[in-house]
Amino acid sequence: MTSLDRHISRRRLLSGAAALAGGGMLFGCAPGASRSTSNLDYWHLMTGGDGIVMAGLVDAVSAANLGFHATQTVLAWGPPYYTKLAMASAGGRAPDVAIMHASRIAGYAPGGLLEPWDLDLLAEVGLKESDFPPLVWQKGMYDGKLYSIALDTHPFVLYYNTEHATKAGVTDALQTMKSPEQFTEVATKMQEVTGKHGVSYGYLGDGSQMWRLFYTFYRQLGAEMKLVPGQKAQVDEDAAVKALSFVQSLLDDKIASRSGDGGTATSEFLHGESGLFFGGVWELPVLKDAKMPVDARPIPTLFGTDAAYADSHTFVLPRQSKASPERRKHVYQLVAEILKRSVKWAGAGHIPAYQPVVRSPEYQELKPQSNYAGIPAYVNYDPDVWFGGAGSDFHKYFAENVQNVYLGSGDPAAGFEGFVKRLNVLLDRPQPV
Amino acid sequence: MSTAIDATTTPAEVVAEGPGSGQDRARRGESLTGWAFAAPFAVLFVLFLVVPAIYGLYLSFTGETLTGSGGELLGFANYAEALTDPDMWKSLGNTLWFTVLSTVPLVLLSLAFALLVNLGLPGRWLWRLSFFLPYLLASTVVVMFWSWMYNPKLGLINGVLGEFGIAPVAWLQDPNVAMISVVVTTLWWTIGFNFLLYLAALQNIPEQQFEAAAIDGAGKWRQLFSIVIPQLAPTTALIVTLQILASLKVFDQIYMLTNGGPAGATRSIVQYIYESGFTGYRFGFSSAISYLFFAIIVLVSLAQYKLINRRNAA
């Protein structure tokens, strides 16, 4: 914005000129200029292990001689990706197809940044509603139209060290626990075995991590969160306080570290210094590579209602000012082909959204992935609102108000109240999309 | 952006100078050449600074968003909203607090370091290098170092403190210490530039003054207060000015170290402008805040200018 470039030095300006020259070249190969119908631009935000698997899938589809190939552009996860995608769509020079978190659709579809998928064309490439879990399919609907097609569901789950579980005598209890007290008991027994912590949970400085565990328990309490611009946030304060108090009770420096960040928590669990680990399914490759005795299950239903925080990577059609029907057809094919190969994607921990893959013996044999394959039936996405979703300010505002509750110094009711107050300010503002 | 200091000169000032009278044609030719040299800069200056600044001012009166909707004129609605927005005030407060916390040690310590190095201790080049070296690092590299050192569980700092039986501190996660941690990182990173300015100024003080003072019986401390510090006054004024401006626009190290957290305790105004515009999609609102901030910077600069001028006149 303006104040960013107000204090510009001459050197910086010159480098700006160099960037401009380079930018000119970039524009040359950007969508719009002399594009063939057979080369599709595909943007996504998968890096690391996920990125390698995705690149493999894209290459496999391109090599299948379907009359097109896809070029992937990988951008940094989170706000940088979404800002760039929104800008590209707003300018009508977007890629042919892009990955977007399902939780972000609410921020994109209303502003006309996305184009809906055509159900007839989808049927032509062999994709239909009944191939997807109902809740996952529904999440892509906005205003009666389908804006996204899910590749996966990636929930927040509970990992455990099977050796420690045996030693602690909690192998059965791990499968049967149904109340916060039972969970605390299992965690305490694990702590006695490891001598350090029972549970590893990295949340420090990471609002998304704080939100994932909170929202799982909040929804298990049967509570909902509805955010409608122009109205006050509709929340269940009692449930929120219960959920926060429970998390706080676990983070007592005995059951779990009071100040664990992502890296610390993972390394603690990897080194056997804890028996349980709250983490996303995307952590699985790291844990498997470590060759540790690990298994996973959904976060147990401790408060009565089955619920799990999750998000989905989905395919979307960013708005293009000139879309050729030929290219579009190829995009549909590309998506169908990736979905049909998504058992490879499941290798990275995610639950494929495409049910024929989930039902396949190849997937059912994947352990521990298939242990939590039932989650999509009761999955809970972030509340639909323009400022919400993966890597959004919503998660950040949650952290701002709740981190000190997790750290043990803040009062759960006050922390949640602060968060709701922040939500109300945002709901009261003009909606930019 | 960073608190690194950018020296800016306007080519127009250079061009505007010329002989006072006579040889009109030659002078015109000279000035044409001058303009030709300045043109590339001028074009970019207009294109990337003047035009965006004016456009930004216009945007601040509209409801413009990233999606291109809401471009209608709103009058002062964005300004009214910004002035009643507690987050705006909080991030502005953070920025001012950071400026105070960083400017004072960045001026005093750089002077102290320059004086120490100027004493002519053995291994002088090593001292000079170690004070200046961090300044050459990119902000990303600096943040990498420090975020590991600040790590509450695995970090070097808590490790060393633990040896002395001091309880671990959540350097970047505790709202009470996060800003101090950011300041310490900034200090380590950017002190080199001020240090270099001071060192150069110190070496420019004529040796005779010290000799004369010594003959008059002035000791080292008297020389420091009666010769060195007064002689450094113009440099100090320059450093303070540049430092305040640099600290006011702090962004990168905070964005990467804490992302403005915990609980917004380190969010600077520039980051709030960035968030409102680029992740909140509200360009109009974000422009309005940036113009309010601009007004503050202009006021600070004017106040300093007045202050320095009055001192020079006196």
Automatic annotation (TrEMBL), chain A:
Gene3D superfamilies: Periplasmic binding protein-like II. Pfam families: SBP_bac_8. It comes from the Bacteria. This is Extracellular solute-binding protein. InterPro entries: Bact_solute-bd_prot1 (IPR050490), SBP (IPR006059), TAT_signal (IPR006311).
TrEMBL record, chain B:
Residues 1-26 are annotated as: Disordered. Residues 92-304 form the ABC transmembrane type-1 domain. Gene3D superfamilies: MetI-like (1.10.3720.10). InterPro entries: ABC_transporter_permease, MetI-like, MetI-like_sf. It comes from the Bacteria. SUPFAM superfamilies: MetI-like. GO terms for biological process: transmembrane transport. The chain crosses the membrane at residues 35-58, 96-117, 129-149, 177-202, 223-246, 288-308. Residues 1-11 have a biased composition (Polar residues). The keyword Transmembrane applies. Keywords: Cell membrane, Membrane, Transmembrane, Transmembrane helix, Transport. GO terms for cellular component: plasma membrane. Coiled coil: none annotated. It is found in: Cell membrane. It is a multi-pass membrane protein. Belongs to the binding-protein-dependent transport system permease family. This is Sugar ABC transporter permease. The lineage of its organism: Bacteria, Bacillati, Actinomycetota, Actinomycetes, Propionibacteriales.
